[in-house]
Amino acid sequence: MIEAQHLSKTYYVVDKEVGLKGSIKAFFKPKKKAIQAVQDISLSIQQGEIVGYIGSNGSGKSTTIKMLTGVLHADEGTVTINGLVPKDNRKTVNKQIGVLFGQKSHLDWNLPVQESFILHAKIYDVPEAVFQERLARLIDLLDLADIMKQSIRNLSLGQRVRCEFAAIFLHQPSVVFLDEPTIGLDASVKETIRAFIRYMNEEHGTTFLITSHDMKDIETLCERIFIIDKGKKVYDGSLSQLKERFSQIKTISFSTEHPLTKDIEAAGLEFDRKDDYHFDIHYQASQWTSAQVITMVFEQIEVDDVTMKELEIESIVRQIYEEGIHA
């Protein structure tokens, strides 16, 4: 459904010195600086896959999605969506895809929700009978019945995002790109969105490419992840295999009755203070056993509670970024 080969994109920005003198110099003799947003990215996604596209801020995630959807043209490389080149078949491709950027809206803020949906259906030439059937299902899945007559501008963030999801599915896209879809949402709305994504994938075979800084989105939805760092591919494979590779890194959480007055010190251990009463210990299973770590901590400080933590994808990704590991 999505095929990208050797994508690269470079931006050029004016490298301006600080102050009035720098502004005048930049105006008459601008010095441009090249920023390689994406470098030789290749990605192939089959129908029905849900793929997590992970990267830190500025790593090139949004630029990649814009090239995949035809919003931006790649400097190098090729893109096809369901066998079609987006820049050459813009209208046809647009009717097959759905795109949601967490900070941008598809809906007219001055219109009620119902009328915004009608307008969206008209834009995508959705037949009236099909529109009514899909709308009824989406209202039920996303719990929109009580807000259909309200203006978009009067909705809460959670209500608006649920409406955004309904809007992009009115034309039943086969491929959906989600860029930070749950940003700023509370836990209950996030779970509603995740359940909706799973439903559309299982019921209609919808293909998803999801970028998110919320690793719960990735862990609960994606079996495969693609990690990008500084515009370059770092990892492309299953989430379970990545966890298995890093399974030697263990974490134990401790809580104390009294405020911490010192850090825990031992070779091969990483002390991670959460607050004055809680901290984590990260360690290599090849060097330490859980019993040894707990005993060592008990010898240094009075502990109130201990919890063994499962390996989290967030910890793995953080280590990849910090240490420059290529998985």
TrEMBL record:
For this UniProt record, give its keywords in alphabetical order, as a comma-separated list: ATP-binding, Nucleotide-binding, Transport
The keyword ATP-binding is assigned to this record: yes
Gene Ontology molecular function terms on file = ATP binding; ATP hydrolysis activity
Report any Pfam family annotated for this entry. Answer: ABC_tran
Decide whether keyword ATP-binding is in the record. Answer: yes
Xref: SMART domains: AAA
Under the heading InterPro entries, the entry gives: AAA+_ATPase, ABC_transporter-like_ATP-bd, ABC_transporter_ATP-binding, P-loop_NTPase
**Residue ranges of the ABC transporter domain?**
18-255
- PANTHER family, per the entry: ABC TRANSPORTER ATP-BINDING PROTEIN, ABC-TRANSPORT PROTEIN, ATP-BINDING COMPONENT
What name does UniProt use for this protein?
ATP-binding cassette domain-containing protein
Which organism does this record belong to?
Answer: Streptococcus suivaginalis
Q: What is the lineage of its organism?
A: Bacteria, Bacillati, Bacillota, Bacilli, Lactobacillales
